[in-house]
Amino acid sequence: MSILVKDVIPMAQVQLERGGVPDAKNDAEMIFRYVMNVDKMGFFKLWGGSLDDDMCDRYLDVVSIRAGGTPLQYITGEQEFMGFTFRVGREVLIPRQDTETLVLEAVSVIGEKKKKSCSVLDLGCGSGVIGISIAKLCDNVKVTLSDISNGILEIAKRNARDLKVERKVSFELGSLYEPFKGRFRPETFDMIVSNPPYIESGAIPSLQREIKDHEPLLALDGGPDGLSYYRKIVPGAQGHLKKGGSLILEIGSGQADDVSEIAAGCGVYSNIRVVRDLSGLDRVMLLEYGID
């Protein structure tokens, strides 16, 4: 027995729609390509062909997992970001296009500084999309990526190998600035970038099921008001930035004033500005260390 591909894809689409998957047609095709290990061209070549029962069952089993709420990226194990393909796993947050705004601003600032070598710290790197993208796009950088678990760092290391930036990056295990305190003096950088957890704890149950039920809570929960990590990262950065260095943070919509207030309270930052994403929402805050 066999079934035509052009018949099984619509079946999968219906199953995904019943499961509440927003873009069921796209996901049905993406899952098929993943199961069959083919690209778009390979998918079109197979369209008029057929699947045997075993392969059809395997495909529909994976469709059932997606219909149950598991994000597509955790099924395929990858996500596009800044035009690069990154590996992701359940240990890390799925990269969003909004975060590309942070990378673009960081690359712009590095270009403006015109330094022969720029040291960058990607704090709480997750899959490494921010730091590794900067390493891919800038010739004059040395990027350090840090996070709290070896499992997370293994994903970032694999992405660094896949994207061939191993010589431009290094990795540190630990919470926030802990790995950089140093025995005699703290390690400092020209730039610190971070996309910290910034969702209010009470808002998490109202998120989409794909997010609240599957993505790591540690990467989402920013405390009661969503600002817990900014209260640690912003004051802490002054001990790890070189004079004239930049702190670049992703922020949630509506958090610009609060994070600006935290920065102002430190008394060491200047040229504070906010950049909006493609949707017109406040997305990135840039702070320069050192008051003239």
Walk me through this protein's architecture.
The structure is a single chain. The protein is an alpha/beta fold. It has two domains: 2-68; 81-289, Vaccinia Virus protein VP39 (Rossmann fold), CATH 3.40.50.150. 39% of the residues lie in helices and 22% in strands. It is built from eleven helices and eleven strands. A seven-stranded mixed beta sheet has the order 7-6-5-8-9-11-10, with helices on both faces. Strands 1-2 form a two-stranded antiparallel sheet. β5 (118-123), α7 and β6 form a beta-alpha-beta unit. α1 (5-18) packs across α2, α1 runs parallel beside α4 and α10 packs parallel to α11 (256-266). The N and C termini lie far apart (77 Å).
